[in-house]
Amino acid sequence: MTPGDNGASTPEDDDPFGYLYADGQARGAQPPSGGYGYPNSVNRVRAVGERQYGQQAPAAYGQQTVPPQQGAYGQPNAHYQAPETFPGGPPAGQQPPPAGGGRGGRGPNTKGLLIGAIAVVAAVVIGISVAMLNGNSNDDKADGGPSASATGSADSKGSASPSASATAATGPGVQDAAGLPLAGGARVSTEFSGARADGGKYVDQMTQVGASVTWKVDVPKSGTYDLWIRYANAEKDAASATTVVNGKPQSYKPDLKNYGKEGDWNAWYRSYVSLRLDQGTNTVAITCGQGDACHFNLDQLALLEEGQKPDW
Predict the structure, then answer these.
(1) Which parts of the chain sit beneath pLDDT 50?
(2) Residues with Cβ < 8 Å from 258, sequence gap 6 or more?
(3) Which of 201, 151, 155 is nearest to 175 (CA)?
(4) Alpha-carbon distance 223 to 228, whole Å?
(5) Closest Cα to residue 213, out of 225, 203, 198?
(6) Angstrom distance (rounded) from CA 234 to CA 249
(7) pLDDT of residue 142
(8) Are 213 and 186 within 8 A, CB to CB?
């Protein structure tokens, strides 16, 4: 009620907000005149459904139009009220973005993460496969597979040096010098003819101190054996070499004289020394020692019991 009335009340007075509803308006309810009680205010009262968000309210006659309150660019507006705080929620078309963020309101890019994980797993599998292939290749070489050389490396003349199998001990008998381990610059050659060894191969370049041919031989019993040497010497002077048994140089040296024509390297001769060997495996080497005149080539060696001779 208002001051000065007679105490009677009308339906519209019972509900001061009856003008907001259709039935109240039908009973003659009217919105209050004036503003909200502060200067230059605007009558913002509207019936439900009448006001449209985002539009400027028209000013009452004689009142100043108040533009929408906005702060400076990039600064918060002290009078701004978030739509989601309105009674009943924000208007249609102004729903807040869903939680979780992301471009376009979507969640995390799980598809991209899945593709990245698959790529990492594929790279690990490929690396393991390559490592296994390399390991198998190395095993083939170590086990004497297809990649392992069966003939050894080639020398400067293209001839093959002895294979690793030549280091195995053999029994007494005849042995090609070119098939034995060489050292100190000694090498295999076929330049001259007349060698009895397989393929006409012989050992030359014995002239440097330390050049050697080593034979690992297995004898059935301890005793004296004759080591026969088939050689070529086309120099005027006699050649000489040192015999080493089980690492010990022998005092007696084989006679490697030239019995033919000087300069004829196609002529081959033989000589021998007697050696004391132990039962089992022994190493016998023909070496160019200090003071030796090692201008000779080696064709074959023969280790026979004392008194026996080779067929050359």
Answers:
(1) 1-9, 11-12, 35-42, 54, 57, 59-62, 65-74, 100-105, 137-161, 163-165
(2) 233, 234, 235, 236, 237, 238, 239, 269
(3) 201
(4) 16
(5) 203
(6) 26
(7) 41
(8) yes
Looking at residue 108, its pLDDT comes to 56
On whether the pTM is more than 0.70, the answer is no
Between CA 223 and CA 227, with CA 225 as vertex, the angle to 5 degrees is 155
Task: For residue 203, count CB atoms less than 10 angstroms from its CB and return exposed for 0-12, middle for 13-18, buried for 19 or more.
Answer: buried
Q: CA angle, 274 as apex, 268 and 278 as ends, to 5°?
A: 125
> 234: part of which helix (H) or strand (E)?
none
Work out the burial of residue 35: count CB atoms within 10 Å of its CB; fewer than 13 is exposed, 13-18 middle, 19 or more buried: middle
Long-range contacts of 237-240 (CB under 8 A, 24+ apart): 237/293, 237/295, 238/293, 239/292, 239/293, 239/294, 239/295, 239/296, 240/292, 240/293, 240/294
Q: Dihedral (C-alpha) 215, 218, 221, 223: value to the nearest 10 degrees?
A: 0
Is residue 163 within 8 A of residue 150, CB to CB? The reply is: yes
| Strand order across the beta sheet in which 280-287 lies | 182-183, 212-219, 280-287, 242-245, 248-249
Please write down the long-range contacts of 34-43, taking CB distance under 8 Å and 24 or more positions apart.
Answer: 35/60, 35/63, 40/64, 40/66, 41/66, 42/66
DSSP state of 172: S
Cα separation, 312 vs 310, in Å, equals 6
**Cα–Cα dist 254/84, whole Å:** 115
Residue-level length of the chain? 312
**Burial class of residue 72 in the structure, from the number of CB atoms within 10 Å of its CB (0-12 exposed, 13-18 middle, 19+ buried):** exposed
- pLDDT for position 116: 73
